[in-house]
Protein 1
Amino acid sequence: MNLNATLLGELIAFAVFVLFCMKFVWPPLMNAIEARQQKIADGLAASDRAEKDLALAQDKAKDQLKDAKAQAAEIIEQARKREAKMIEEAAHKANAERDTILAQTKAEVEAERNRLREDLRKQVAALAVAGAERILQRSIDEAAHSDILEKLVQEL
Amino acid sequence: MAAGEELTLSGHIQHHLTNAKMCTVDGSVAFNKACSEAGFWTWHIDTLAWSIGLGILFLWIFRSVANKATVGVPGKLQCFVEMVVELVATNVRDTFHGKSKLIAPLALTIFVWVFLMNLMDLVPVDFLPAFAGWVGATFFGMDSHDVYMKIVPTTDINMTAALAIGVFILMIGYSIRIKGVMGFVKELTLHPFSSKNVVLQIILIPANLLLETIALVAKPFSLALRLFGNLYAGEMIFILIGAVGLMQLPLHFVWAVFHILVIVLQAFVFMMLTIVYLSMASSDNH
């Protein structure tokens, strides 16, 4: 064992190496490692978040689809109701119109018949009067017996 | 054998285990055997050159990766470097609970640097010393036996001691920073034997001081000697295997495979103990 000045030299070299390592080697390497770890952690977190987002979006889409289906069914139902209502209304209207037309026609027919009857009565009256005139030409004075004739006409 | 015929086996081993030395004798630079009288002011130039070279290699690779470090998909080298950094950071996080910007880079430096220095043990033992001998003989006109080249810096006690002393200085620094000077002194004097009685406590102080000081100083000693001992023994066995002729090939292979474990393990142990010691130094409860 011969300790000598080499020891001092090595001691100085050791100190210089450690200081150099501390100043110029360790920090950049450690920074790179830690930054990468951070990056990986961020990436994993982001992928987790994306997975959750995806599940959420799928749920939402399902809900919306369900809503849309329900809405469509409702609309169809409404349309059907309206259709039925419209048909009913139309039928009603048609019936009413038919009734009106029928009533009108009846009234017209009635009026015509009345008119015709009146005509006929007048003609019969005239005929009766003419007949009677002819029969009673001499004996009956038109003016004196007009009340009888009038009564006859009324009875027809 | 690179050492030549006239050298004995023990001479060969001795040659392998000797550092290249440099010193100043009478105001001029001298090398190797001329330095036997130089005492403390001798420099092991092979240890210094290899260790600093490997340290620079480590910092250069890691710095170039750090410069180009991307937050996105990393390249293969960046992946590897980040794996090492992650390993060190995890161990530091698990063991050291205080806040410190120094501990993690310190642990990384120790781990990779010691690993690289240990790794030199796997270079076949005769290659580089023989090459150095050839260079010395060819270009500098030296006797090739006079050229020493010990390429594993961690088999030099100066190297491991320097690391351990560096850690020891930090231990004391952290102790004082966290607990204050008085806290540190109290820790050394009032444990493990303590008493409510003031007089008794004062009597117990020398015993406490002795025990605690030994416990404190044992840490850098064990750090330095563990690494040195493991690598020195491993190197020694490589050298011995290198001396048994053709049989050395399978033996080298087996020992090298086993030694891979030792190389990584010793680097890791040195790093872990550094973290543990500094963690102990900076925690308040004894």
Protein 2
Amino acid sequence: MSKQEQHWEKTRNLLFITLAIWFVFSIGIFLFGAEMQESSIRPFGYPLTYWFTCQGSLAIFVILIFWFAGRQEKIDDEFGFSEREGDK
Amino acid sequence: MIKGKFIDNLPKVYGIYTGGFLVFIILMAIAEQAGMSAKLIGIFFVAFTVLIYALIGWLSRTLQVDAYYVAGRQVPTVFNGMATAADWMSGASFVAMAGGIYFKGYGYMALLVGWTGGYVLVASLLAPYLRKFGCYTVPDFIGTRYGGNLARFSAVIVLTVASFTYVTAQINATGTIASVALDIPFGIAVYVGLASILMCSMLGGMRAVTWTQVAQYIVLIIAYLLPVFWISSKLGAGFFPHFMLADEVARIAELEGQFGFVKNSAADLATVPKGLAGITKAHSSVNATPWAFISLAVCMMAGTASLPHVMMRYFTTPSVRTARRSVGWSLFFIFLLYSSAPMLATLSKLSLIDPTLPTGIIGKTIAEVQAIDWYQNWNQANLMFISDFNGNGTLELNEFFMGGKAVVLATPEIAGLPYVISGLVAAGGMAAAMSTADGLVLAISNALSHDIYYKIINPKAETAKRLIVARVLLVLIGFAGATIAALEIQGILGSVIWAFDFAMSGLFFPLVLGVWWKRANAPGAVAGMLLGLISGTAYLIWVRSGGSGFLGITQLTFGIVGAAVSLVSMIVVSLITAAPDAATQKMVDDVRVPSGKTVLAQK
């Protein structure tokens, strides 16, 4: 496998992990909205589903993007594909 | 003044700007105490901020193609994040969202999840790769990746349909705010709004839009957060509402149980002015089926990743790495406002319906409520209405009606905040609507000038001519948008949601597969774009004209139909036609690697 193919395979795996987490917090948990609402877990005292729709999922997306960017930068560095000065 | 050095001094420049704006707010507060009229304060707020944006637009004027189309590709990560947030958060986010949550609760909050979750798709599937591509517009990517004028042309069609639907809503919003704040008729206010929008974008294109959008973000976020924190403290709900409103949410549920949701008869409802609604759904309970919630969220997410005015913001960063991080910052800045909207809805609702609070009106006599100053003001503005349906002389929950916009616009006044805050909110709404309209008008005119005029009609056109064409188109599109906005065909929020569905129907899969599936070819992409857009539109028309629809897909989620048709037709047509040539495959390989020159620079 060429260096580029290996790089792309790692990039793709990172994509799948990112999309899996994204799926859980944008779609997965809302399949169980009614059940979660009754849960005794109440972040800051809010009902659980209500909290996820107005803060939880949103905050997780912000963190997820920064985490993803960091991991992708590591992959690019590993294969020497990061941008250098003068690349334009 | 705005050259090289300006980029290095950004934190300082915008720091001074923010400080200056805060001083302006304080001066206005002092002027209010000294007896300046509410109307004059409103005029000052809107006129002052719009003049500042126009000044920035004029200072950023340019004669260079690179600066006009992609701001010279030197916008730093965090500032591009702010600009994208302003680009993204429209009049609908600012003025209508808290109102939607106030009336519809959980089912509506799918928009919060959808309008933020979409950025994960932007960051992971598209933005860094399109930045590496080095294109000026979204159709530029489609046209070069797939090859052929037909693919480029189809992309322009989808872009224009989606963005134009969106931009009429934004011009409508600027008109609404300008007409209230400056006290002029809506038909004229729309053109005042248009003039402000064009001043920001015409001379400097993307460069001017970038630096005005940063300025607009600062105004709109201050205008949104300040009242939320203030009202929360004033009600004694807590100084940091986001973490402290649990008791208030529980109290609303308790009151709702106590009052009950009485259904009004059709004859009674017919007397309520158009566009106003009563509280008919529980505030915090799960009131929508999983599918209704998820399908709306999915449409907004896929639409986010296909809307060209957002995507082109990531063409302006210096590198692929900064494009990726910039998406994170964009979402962070959006999060600040979106996580506050439900808090505002909660505070607004509680202060109106809790009889134990001095501001509560439910349970008071009809005559008492009619005597309140703010009720008279907003009733006159056609945003509030009460009626004693059951004739008992007391106001019940089902007898109180409000317009969606009133939650943001009127709550400061209801909670007894000084008028200076209402003026600030008007300036914020204006900033939100203007910044989005700017991005959209520019996206359309850039696509027409670069992709249709330069790439298809006249590839030999020299720089000066290209930029003149771009500006003429900008003005024409602005006027077309304003003319349609002045007709007031549909509400602001409905057309915004449609824009997402249109974009998703035609562009989502052709964009994503262009990067992630090497085998995708031009015939497949054209089929995907056109069949997707046509089937989505057909479904919309069918449902609008009384069709029953299927699978619970409504006129707000027709993008699901369009995108599904788009995906299937794109894969089938790609597979039965020839694979892309070696040069195209090499191009896709290059896009996937951040280092090296942009793909277009290599050609």
Protein 3
Amino acid sequence: MSQLSLKRLEKSFNEARIIKGIDLDVSEGEFVVFVGPSGCGKSTLLRMIAGLEDVSSGEIEIGGKVVNDLPPVQRGIAMVFQSYALYPHMTVFENIAFPLRVEKLSTDEVNTRVHAAAKVLQLEPRLQHRPGQLSGGQRQRVAIGRAIVRQPKIFLFDEPLSNLDAALRSEMRIELMELHKRLGSTMIYVTHDQVEAMTMADKIVVLDAGEISQVGSPLELYHKPDNLFVAGFIGSPKMNFISATVKASDGTTTTLDLGALGTIALPRKATLPVGQTVTLGVRPEHLHLGAGDFTLNVTPNIVEHLGIHTVAYSTLPAGENFIALFEGAPDITEGVAAPISFRLDQVHLFDTAGLAVY
Amino acid sequence: MTSNRSAVLFALALLAPALIYILIIVAYPLVDTIILSFTNAALRPTYDWVGWANYQRIFTAGNFTEVILRTFVWTFFSVATKMIIGTLGATLLNAAIPGQTVFRILTMPPWIVPMAIGIFMWGWMYNGQFGMISGLLQNFGVISKPWPILAQGSSAFWATIVTDVWIGVPMVTIYMLAAMQSIPKDLYEAAWTDGASRGYRFRRITLPLLVPALLTMSLLSMIATFNSFDIIWILTQGGPSNTTTTMIIDTYKTAIGSRKYGEGAARAVVICIFVSIFCIVYFRAVRKLSQGEAK
């Protein structure tokens, strides 16, 4: 049974529809990541689950019970805010103990729970300090501690790592994943960073303009994006898109005219109308130097040598940007044309509406 | 050495405008007042150095000690009332209520109306014959004959405080409202998520985080109230029988009314010392507070 269910969930601020009918099921113990660009509604959706935003229509069920009208504290959730929301005048101990003091638990119980959380988060030596004296990572841990002591059914994280520097971010990412393993609780995590989404999630929910674009495991989204938006959003560097016209399509093979780049025949079960404008997608890391299934001649404008990788940026004849990512340091030079190829089974095809064609 | 000296000169040159401004506006009058307080300056063209005589006189002869005490009582009640009403008002104005802006604007008139006009208005309301307060109380049968509020010592004292509170509350309200709004919304959301009630949030988040603002506003209000001249002067001129004479009124009466500049200056210096003590206490409290935050 799913622990959290969103049913036709909608949210409008005056005339503006921010969340447009979302259906989603989250199972117990799952780590679900809401990802999408700024303004896609992911934080609003999380705040609706938390009870910080009213629901315009639809239902939120937690543990089989509709919680639309319940205050946050009765929903069995705990939230970690982007800004950490630590009380600056209280010690770390008091910050973590805050929800327990609200519950009016006994002093012994408060002590036991706060120390247990502090131990898990390695905050014991810091309990008597104030937030102002802590590093960004430690503050983040205090915020998580405050969530842990409540022993919630569901943890909600609103872009918790976005205020940290890159090194600390990857460290905290691992800590959070370990925490999830240890606690086994359901976690819903909002981020705009697809690396966080890909590395942490059991299930990614990609949001676009208040709607779910696709739900799936990280590898599903990577290998089988449902649409252009997901294809372009997941993966770094971004997937290359090449505009094409359908020349022939018979239910087994679809032949595309790529203009100056020639023609390509892709195995596809779907039949597309001849003359339709479609989009071909190839991930930069699926490109190889030298001839292959389909080869293009490109002249890199810029070549970046990153040691482990080499990234070549070029422009195709039709003006599209084209990025290639190669392992190691292959022989490719700025301004010198080179043959670059890809395998046909690694090509994505999207119809006029932007939906994937398989 | 030379470059060091030219760096110092350059710094001084940059500071000069501000220094000259402070010297003319603050330092010169202050020093002049202090010098004057050791003289018997009056209307005569010349005056003599009298040492501590003015200070001895104000603390031994007359009723200056009583005036000091009265000033403190006046200041305490006025500031405390302003702070309580102002903070409560700010809390109400900070709540998400319909017509919030209208209510915020409505708090402003006492502050916007020219002070003298506001005070005259209160003067009329306090009038025993045609004043609104006396009239209403008679109408409701609370009193049987006209009550000239400003003509009786005890009521005049509290009446001046009421007017001072009326004029001072908007500033406290707006300042405290600004302080409340600077508290991050996230803190309240986090507390609300944890189940904290409105009262609990106010007690454990708002109030502690308002302490610096409360301290600052109390000090500013204390200085302004301690030195408040126009309200008392327009309403009672320190009367009846000196019952509303505070230190600043007494100083004015001595220096300007009786033309005893030397004695008046000594009184002004005493006021200055008291206000300086308030400031020292305030700065210590703020330092302690910021150290506590860092601990």
Protein 4
Amino acid sequence: MKTNTKTTGRRHTAKAARLPRCPTGIQGLDEITGGGLPRGRPTLVCGGAGCGKTLLAAEFLVRGAAQFDEPGVLMAFEETEKELEANVASLGFDLEGLVRRKKMVVDHVHIERSESTQSGGYDLEGIFVRLGHSIDSIGAKRVVLDTLEVLFANLPDEAVLRGELRRLFRWLKAKGVTAVITAERGPGSLTRHGLEEYVSDCVIVLDHRVSDQVATRHLRVVKYRGAMHGTNEFPFLIGADGISVLPITSLSLNHQVSRERIATGIPRLDKMLGGRGFFRGSSILLTGTAGTGKTIISCNFGHAAARRGERVLYFSFEESPNQIIRNMHSIGLRLEPMVKRGLLRFHSARPSLYGLEMHLATMFKEIAEFRPQVVIVDPITSLMDLGTVSEGKGMVTRLIDYLKATQVTTLFTSLTQGGHPLQQSEGGMSSLMDSWLLLEDFEGNGERNRVFYVLKARGMGHSNQIREFLISDHGIDIVDAYIGASGVLTGSARAAQGALEKAAALAGQQEAAQLKREVERKRGALERQISGLRSDYESEALELRRIAEQVGTRTLLLSTERAESGRLRQADIKLGSGMPIKSKAGRRLP
Amino acid sequence: MKTVKDSNAVAVERARAKRPAVRSKDEFLLRLFVAGATDRSRQAVLHVRDLCATGLKDRVALEVVDIYQQPALARSNQIVATPTLVIENPPPLRRFIGSLANIAALFAELDLIKKGKSEP
């Protein structure tokens, strides 16, 4: 990190040594030109009427005198000192004060063609002397000539004039002052009188274009000898504090990032975002067709932030603050206490009120004033419709970078016009966003239901599920959507599916119970069988014992009987084992 | 306004007629602004002096200013080109720029001098 900054620092000084720059102090212009205008050389600023040439030149001088301690001379060919003072005072510059403190000289050059008649050769020594005198009187480092071309209109003999102008630019260079020369744009050429051929170091073209009835100013560095510069057209705006160029491509991506997470105000949504919500300072895009609940989610987010004690700035381009407050009341979200406590501020403006640049300027101003932690832009698309896609994207980039640099969390809503919500314009804008929530309408079963999902969330684990969300009297409720064979089931279909599943579960339960009963019955039968068998067994055993006993007694009886008969027959023969037959016979004998 | 600025150096001349106490309508007040001692400056001064001497006679006050010496006057008099001859009186304000070679003819054209043409 350290070595990094060191090398860039060195590179920077090396560049500066090659061609010294004269910082203009104009927001964005120094970024484009890599530090400012070429020091000690004349710069040509050309453009059509009303595109801000004089203002740019005047700001260069005033900022030079006020910020960089470089006194300046303004030679005005079109406007008088008083007019100029009034014009720049409306942008917050104190020209009169600078003149009084000898930081600036304003010299109005008045030429009236009807007053003068030419007779013989002439030179422009009058201009040289006046300029030289003014420069020397305050030690000026900067000079503005606005607009030299007035000379062409009011002085005869163009050849003489051209020669003199060439000499003037040489003289300015020799004087070592950084000069800005303004010129009217001509048809087919940069300037009407070809001044660009004398000023070869730096040429800046200003442009004021109207597209779709909305005017946007553009600035382009056509030429910057011996230096890298942004060659694109950059939109610029004239705000309450002067010119601010919006350099889209030169913005660096090195803002600080936070690991802090902030809740969205919708607990289930937080859970979907890894359980803790969005990163602080991230940019969030909320896309959806009309009526999908973008504003409601935004208000929830703003409400949650205000409840944490953060300041929330809500830019609304479709609804008035009172309307939003009333509507949110219907879902149980009370915003007016937040407004009263100064935590929530609304800024409502119709998109068509003024052009993109003015919108951006007023937004910047509001943000700088209110210093919010959370900014909501609802919807960004109505702003982007004002300009071309690239202008809109540039604006959003600028806004996001500005907000990120100050760790402001931004929520943009984006209205998509039917069809599939992933449209081209979103595709362009979404790359700038850290998180993207998509709201959709699901139509089916004669009803519309809202679903949403997290399309992307940089740097955090997030749910990939489509969720249905319900808007009720007490706010937003996110429920799991059923995924059926025909896609996601929402609304009554989801309810029907729920009932169906419940019934199935019940049926299963009943079946199981029946099965259990059956088994038990079987078991009972078996047990009964077993007890029958056992009683059988026992009776058999009893029988067996009885038989055995019978046999025993019979044997005893027999032997007694035989002994008796033997005694009677007086057969002293000892009774053998094989005698029973004999005894039987003997028994039978009597 | 009437204080005549003394310009030294070079061929800056002071062709000043008597200043009448009461300025009549015919009285001319001319200011010639030149830048240094260039050929053009010298020529301009010469031509104007000639005009004053012949066409305007004594009814003229001429002031020659070298803007190198008096740069502040260049600004206050709105000088852009040099040489410039400013006719402050009689009104309206008129300017002639250049070396003023045919200044007498221009004056005659503008009916500033009646005698110029009648006096060959």
